[in-house]
Design a protein that fits this description.
Elements (H helix, E strand, L loop, with lengths): L6 H17 L8 H15 L22 H38 L6 H15 L8 H21 L7 H11 L7 H19 L15 H18 L5 H12 L2 H6 L13 H26 L13 H14 L6 H21 L8 H22 L23 H9 L4 E5 L4 H8 L3 E3 L9 H12 L1 H11 L3 E4 L24 E6 L4 E5 L5 H7 L9 H5 L6 H18 L2 H13 L3 H10 L4 H13 L3 H14 L3 H13 L3 H14 L6 H11 L3 H32 L3 H14 L4 H13 L3 H14 L4 H13 L3 H14 L4 H13 L1
Parallel strand pairs: 1-2, 1-3
Antiparallel strand pairs: 3-5, 4-5
Helix pairs in contact: 1-3, 1-4, 1-14, 2-3, 2-16, 3-4, 3-5, 3-13, 4-13, 4-14, 5-6, 6-8, 7-8, 7-12, 11-13, 12-13, 17-18, 21-22, 22-23, 22-24, 23-24, 24-25, 25-26, 26-27, 27-28, 28-29, 29-30, 30-31, 31-32, 31-33, 32-33, 33-34, 34-35
Length: 819
């Protein structure tokens, strides 16, 4: 570090760098780690990049593609020679090196260690979720070194930039983000030239308007290094892929809509882009205001703070601000780039403060910062939110708790090998653990055709899609994760397995992570005969089982299978499921015992609350309902809290929670009678009358919804005439619901009654002109009528209303065909 730095400053930075290293000694949990280790092993074993695809059978015979090949090779070499210790230490050292350069960059030119370290702890929190065994860690290192080396060359004439062409050769072969190097280079070159021009316009001989503008000689050197770096980046077996693969992923609707980390950030999903962008822009704005103030008051001899922050860094930051709002996976990049800039701007703001020039105050600030770094490290190490994440556990080892290890062990014991149709994020683990005895349908690279990517989720709900895939690829096992019931049909279909609609496949294993199916009539019929779950449908939960619990044979079979699963897997889900069944059967103390063996969560708290309330332990019942409500704001939970207080004769709290439940959901019918009764009991007649009027209106809506649910159930069972009658009844009771009209239109479409289908889709739009599903229905009708222009118009209308999802992608495909 710089010779001007005090002992306290050196200690502060050393403590921070050490904490970064130690906090990155965490077990391997990220699913992509298996991908890079597997592909690195393939390259290591082959002594070069394989010519054809090895691991994913739909790509068998096609060219092997892996743009981050050097990253995979380096990481596998670390594993090969030093086992898991080498992999984790390599990750920790890479991230530590990146933060070392970020700190160095933050100190340019003001040497304010306190500001640099405090800002970097914030950046650590912002980017911490990406401190995993992915090529992103190399990107952090390369990008931070690139910006620092350019800045230190301009500020201090240090020669690190001569290493950049060599670094870019490595960068181009380890991560498909090499095009990001253009941002710092072009900012230093183009904006540097603009700043030089602006500084020449000043009639004075001082430092100019902008601080630290590159000289003509420095600009020439930077340009040469830039050209050499471009040349170095092309030294790769995938030179074109390195520059285009990122854009192709972002340009794919499937990737951006189905992969969570590619979704756009919102204030609810990730606040960092909003906070960091605002802080960065504010730091530039305040500095500019201070520049204007000094220049208006002090004439020619300006203090250092009277020169504006370099615009170079503003133009470096702007593209990364934009990127951070495009996808969640890019948020960390904004932190890596903006952290040193923010620290530099804050340091400049306080550089002219006379009260900070005494010896005592800076010393106290450094000591305080040292204490903060220690506290920050402890909070992060103990996974205390928002500093740490509980899934990152300190230590060396593989944490495969989110992987289908239990199912794969079961497959080992039953000799189930060969091709597996798998969930997207599990292919790499299957390959790492089991290749060549098992191969995957897809791994984390996602190198499948658009149709095959769509089939990943469609196959679960559409037997015809799954059957075509089976006929083409011949897999006999399906390994899936738990997918939420987005259609709201769980309660309608207790007799349908919502994790897989095709009855040609038998459920033979499930635990808290995975679900395994085997093909009927295939080589594993003996396994199916012995291990099939004929009653339990784990995705359906208690809502799916409740309608048949009064059937003795069904209830006994269900309980028997749940106990078998508990003996085999110790599943928390099975304990919870069994607890709900005991609640339904009035075995409340047994239910409490089961729930206490399950993982804590909203559903467990609800089950415990119900059981305690049923044995008149209202205090514990209320406590668990409140715990459940903290996890998810739900009107039914508030209703249950109010009901429990009512049973305790606590009318004040009962009234409070019941009225809050109604505010949250005015269609929760069960609230009204109790709330009206309480109002009347307390002599609040006006409130009772108003609630009674609301109750009457809600009843109408509810009756319409009941018919709507019956219609949906009939439609999903292909009982189209019954569905049509129920939708008509729903419309009669609740004529302002556009969904009922549109769904009836789809029923008529399936019955090939296009005139009636058209009529009801139009009626849906009469109720709500922006109702997207009606536009999609009209587009399908116009296609049948061969009116391509009208079909295209309504597909476009659908996309405007529903820009995300499978049907929006289908609509775009249809528009493409029509064009």
């Amino acid at each position: 570090m710089d010779k001007q730095m005090t002992v306290a400053s050196r200690l502060l930075i050393a403590l921070f760098i050490a904490s970064v290293f130690l906090l990155n000694i965490t077990e391997i949990v990220d699913t992509d780690a298996w991908l890079h280790l597997s592909l690195g092993k393939a390259i290591f074993d082959a002594g070069g990049i394989p010519e054809t695809e090895l691991y994913t059978y739909p790509n068998s015979g096609k060219a092997f593609t892996y743009g981050s090949w050097l990253f995979g090779l380096i990481y596998y070499a670390a594993y090969h020679f030093f086992d898991v210790y080498g992999v984790i230490l390599l990750k920790a050292l890479t991230i530590t090196a990146a933060f070392y350069f970020l700190i160095r960059d933050s100190l340019l030119p003001h040497k304010n260690c306190v500001v640099a370290v405090l800002v970097m702890t914030i950046i650590f929190m912002m980017a911490g979720h990406r401190f995993v065994e992915r090529p992103d860690t190399f990107l952090m290192l390369f990008l931070s070194f690139l910006i620092y080396s350019l800045g230190s060359y301009v500020y201090e004439n240090k020669k690190y930039i001569y290493a950049l062409p060599f670094m870019h050769v490595i960068w181009a072969n380890t991560h498909a983000s090499i095009n990001l190097m253009f941002v710092p280079f072009l900012s230093f070159i183009a904006v540097g030239i603009l700043q030089k021009t602006a500084n020449r316009l000043r009639p004075t001989a001082d430092s100019g308007i902008f601080q630290y503008t590159p000289s003509s000689a420095q600009l020439k050197t930077i340009i040469v290094i830039f050209l050499l770096s471009i040349g170095g980046s092309l030294i790769s077996p995938y030179s074109k892929l390195q520059f285009t693969s990122g854009a192709s992923v972002l340009g794919s609707d499937w990737w951006s809509q189905e992969i969570t980390e590619l979704a756009r950030p919102t204030w609810g999903s990730n606040k960092w882009p909003f906070i960091m962008s605002a802080a960065l822009i504010a730091s530039f704005a305040v500095n500019w205001i201070m520049v204007f103030y000094h220049r208006s008051k002090k004439g020619i001899n300006h203090p250092p703070s009277a020169s504006a922050p370099s615009l170079i860094y503003l133009f470096i930051a702007i593209p990364f601000i934009f990127l951070s709002f495009q996808a969640l996976r890019f948020v960390f990049l904004l932190g890596i780039v903006s952290g040193p800039i923010l620290a530099r701007n804050i340091s400049q703001l306080i550089s002219g403060r006379s009260d900070l020039k005494s010896k005592t105050l800076p010393y106290l600030m450094r000591v305080t910062a040292i204490i903060w770094v220690i506290v920050f490290a402890i909070l992060t190490f103990t996974n205390t939110g928002p500093f740490g994440d509980e899934k990152y556990k300190f230590g060396f080892g593989f944490n495969n708790s989110s992987m289908p290890e239990g199912a794969l062990k079961y497959m080992d014991t039953k000799n189930i090998y060969g091709r597996v149709f798998n969930t997207f994020q599990w292919g790499q683990y299957i390959v790492w653990r089991d290749f060549p005895k098992r191969s995957a349908f897809v791994d984390g690279r996602g190198y499948l055709t658009a149709d095959l990517l769509e089939s990943l989720s469609l196959a679960r709900a559409r037997p015809i899609v799954l059957e075509k895939l089976h006929e083409k690829y011949g897999f006999e096992a399906i390994l899936l994760d738990y997918q939420k019931d987005l259609a709201g049909v769980t309660a309608l279909h207790y007799d349908r397995d919502l994790s897989l609609a095709d009855p040609s496949w038998a459920l033979v294993y499930w635990d808290d992570v995975s679900i395994l199916y085997l093909r009927r009539g295939g080589p594993y019929d003996a396994v199916i005969k012995e291990d099939e779950y004929r009653f339990v449908k784990p995705v359906n939960n208690i809502e799916g089982a409740r309608p048949r619990l009064n059937e003795n044979d069904y209830a006994e079979g269900l309980i028997k299978e749940l106990n078998r699963n508990i003996d085999l897997t110790g599943s928390s889900k099975a304990h919870s499921f069994l607890g709900f069944i005991y609640n339904e059967n009035g075995r409340y103390r047994e239910a409490i015992a089961m729930f206490n063996k399950a993982n804590k969560g909203e559903s467990t708290d609800l089950g415990l609350a119900y059981a305690y309330g049923s044995i008149n332990n209202f205090d514990d019942s209320i406590r668990h309902y409140k715990m459940a409500f903290k996890k998810r704001k739900n009107a039914s939970t508030l209703y249950n809290i109010g009901t429990a207080y009512s049973k305790k004769s606590d009318d004040e709290n009962a009234l409070k929670y019941l009225s809050e439940a109604l505010k949250l959901d005015s269609h929760l019918i069960s609230v009204y009678p109790k709330l009206i009764q309480l109002y009347q009991k307390k002599g609040m007649n006006r409130e009772a009358e108003e609630t009674a009027r609301m109750y009457e209106n809600a009843n109408v809506t509810t009756k319409g919804e009941e018919h709507f649910k019956e219609a949906l159930k009939a439609y999903l069972n292909n009982k189209l005439y019954i569905a049509a009658e129920e939708y008509k009844k729903s419309i009669e009771v609740h004529p302002s619901n556009p969904e009922a009209y549109s769904n009836l239109g789809y029923v008529y479409y399936d019955m090939d009654m296009l005139a009636q289908a058209y009529e009801y889709q139009r009626k849906a739009l009469d109720v709500d002109p922006d109702f997207a599903n009606a536009h999609y229905g009209l587009a399908l009708i116009y296609l049948k009528w061969n009116d391509q222009q009208s079909a295209k118009k309504h597909f476009q209308k659908y996309i405007e209303g529903e820009p995300v999802g499978y049907f929006s992608r289908r609509a775009k495909e249809e528009i493409g065909k029509l064009q």
